[in-house]
Amino acid sequence: MANTSAFGESSPSAHNYASAASAVKLASLGLITGVSLLGNASLSLLLLKDSSLRKAPYYFLLDLCLADVVRSAVCFPFVMAAIGGGGGSSAWPYSALCCKIVAFLSVLFCFHVAFLLFCVSVTRYMAIAHHRFYYKRMNLCTCAAVICMVWTLSVAMAFPPVFDVGTYKFIREEEQCTFEHRYVKANDTLGFMLMLAVIVGTTHVVYVKMLCFVYDHRKMKPTQLVPAISQNWTFHGPGATGQAAANWIAGFGRGPTPPTLVGIRQASHLGNRRLLVLDEFKMEKRIGKMYYMITLTFLVLWAPYISACYLRIFVRGAPVPQLYLSAAVWMSFAQAGANPIISFLFNKELRMRLRACFPSCLGTQTPMEPYCVI
Length: 374
What we know:
This is G-protein coupled receptors family 1 profile domain-containing protein. By secondary structure, the chain is mainly α.
């Protein structure tokens, strides 16, 4: 059970320390909220404005950004109100129903990120290992269905505790409305914590499998072929396997139509391509790296808080240091603003499109031509 502790009001130094700690928490949470709103809103506008980014992986990224915007705009102000309304110690200034709603939204967004990152890891593996199936099936409707499924699963995980008495409540040490993690014999949240750990762990397993696939195929050596002899596009010799003509028909040929292939249409439409060429492979690999860094950041920022929750579940009356718990909670808050930073750092395409769509904001305006006055 979460132990309620208060700073001693009899000592002026303790009261000053509590006031200073509250001020630091308010300033840091305000900074996290501002960075999250600005970064996620900018990335969302970029994804909506640029038609070249209307692809399956960026639909999922847009959903992540919009969810973080709502979390920062709805949940974080209530935490700031609880910190600032306690006179040096946190206190919930609103009704119990409002606390349940805020707790429900906090848990909903947490599970939403976990479920969506798992689905993204599966699609990243398909894009590398089964590119033909991925290219044919991962369209806008499929992405919308996956996103709807993720939100449905998240609601299913976060909604039942609303009806449990005492499960969602204001935890004073954490200064937020969330699960009340109790001892395992009288516990209501063990299943939810286990589900979260399983989802995050399985996501990393999928990325490890994708990494092994890429590594194994990098070790494959090309066969030694004897080049064919060409005379007016009529190939003969030991290497005349018909591959050159097949490449031209598939749309990879250069120059005029070969005389022996007159009347055969060359496949120039991008939709007819079924193989993962080198440029596409590099792009998919780059997007996979970006999403793995988002997943790893989610694990790193949430791991201290999840560890504290497991400690209170499995150890009766476990004393969790207040400084550690506050830092863990604020690290989980910081996850809301981390995704845009990681996306721009690890995705060259997003940086290029940002400069192209917002040149005036980034100071990359086209220089004016010199002129002279006559």
